[in-house]
Amino acid sequence: MEAITNEETKPKKNQAKEYLKGWVPYRIKRYWAYVVATIIALVMPWITIGGNHLFLLSFDHKKLHLAGVAFDMQELYLMPFLLMLLFLGIFAVTAVGGRAWCGWACPQTIFRVIYRDGIETKLLGLRKRIKNKQKDPDMSKSENQVKRVIAILLWSVLAFIAAADFLWFFVPPEEFFTYLQNPGEHMMLFGMLIGIALFIIIDVVFIKEDFCIYICPYSRVQSVLYDDDTVMAIYDPHRGGDIYEGQGYEREKKFSKTKDLLAANPTAECTTCESCVTVCPTHIDIRKGLQLECINCLECVDACTTVMGALGKPSLVRWSSENEVIYQKGKTNYFRPKVIAYFTVLVLVLVALFAMGSKKEHMLLNVNKTTRLYKVLDHGVVENDYLFLFANTDSKPHTYYFEIVNNDKIEIIRPKESFSIAPGKKRKKVVVLRTKEKLANDARKDVPIPVTIRAFATDDKENIIVERHTVFVYPRSDLIKK
Known about the structure:
The chain is of the alpha+beta class.
């Protein structure tokens, strides 16, 4: 009888090996995704192209660096495109893969994995197993209390590094460390560094996944973006059996033991081991159906794959869509109208961003009238004063001057000579324009005469040239001196 039993179990063991052969848990794949995301976040602020960063929004210098090109604050028309890319990108990813951002790239999730799985579990042994995220460490033991303090201290060091890395996208690293040497002169920077680090410590150590469940608005937004073809972690009730009954959040647990489940549904394959529940970082039961708390980390898929794989069966929890698993309408449709629309708009915004970015002006010019409207001299000569603000947004110094376009009746009195501006610097110039002859004859009111100013770099007139439109105010005729 024993020999028969062994012979019967051999096919199952072989089948189990076949299911688990070459299988790499999603948890390991996520770890590699976290490594890549961390390296990108830490390295990106240090990469420069021609002295400009890949991405830097500097409020100190009032500049935006994008893909190695520096834009002045007056050129921040690019920011709406960047924000549209960010939000449309998140919407598109959510429509296709659910909360894939939350489980695979969100800093909150990465920080929690580092602290809980790395420091508490692997390094200090405060938690016994990575696969059990429901049971908190026993803090009644003095040994665990010491380990807890050590874990918080270790995480505090990493939190300050993470806070500094975040600030590097607003304060260049080379300037950041210089500012740290003079804390009295940069109290705001120090305050932000400490404040961000404290938030990360409190969030990761004490708030934990409650941030994802109760604070983060993304979980509420996702319910609007989901459809029946959105890919997420889904339990297969057709194979596993209905563990819950009812609708939505009102569903109540019906079976807790395998014998009760099998009595109601003899073909049910769920073992009610609840491995998918104990491994969940947001403390939900995936068998209940779609829930806002699910962050698509796919830990439940790994847990069920291990249990069912040992029985020679495929996992009851899969990364799939409701149409494929629940409604059984065939394969998931990834190229549905909503997704196509999202990615079409993303491409259009990206093209517009590059098109606008390629038209960067290497010189900016603001033309403003002074408080004095005009000055009337002898012989009917009239002067208008202006304040020109030049900005050299190029990476090298240039010499500038300007001219009046298509109007030979007005001449430039001041300044008479060109002037130089260093890269990234600004310079104000008081400009005086004077009439050569009578421009108007109106006895009732002053006459505004359109004037076009063409400013240029004398050393690179072909590439660095801008035009600005203003008006020359000519007084009414009774004010003209004869």
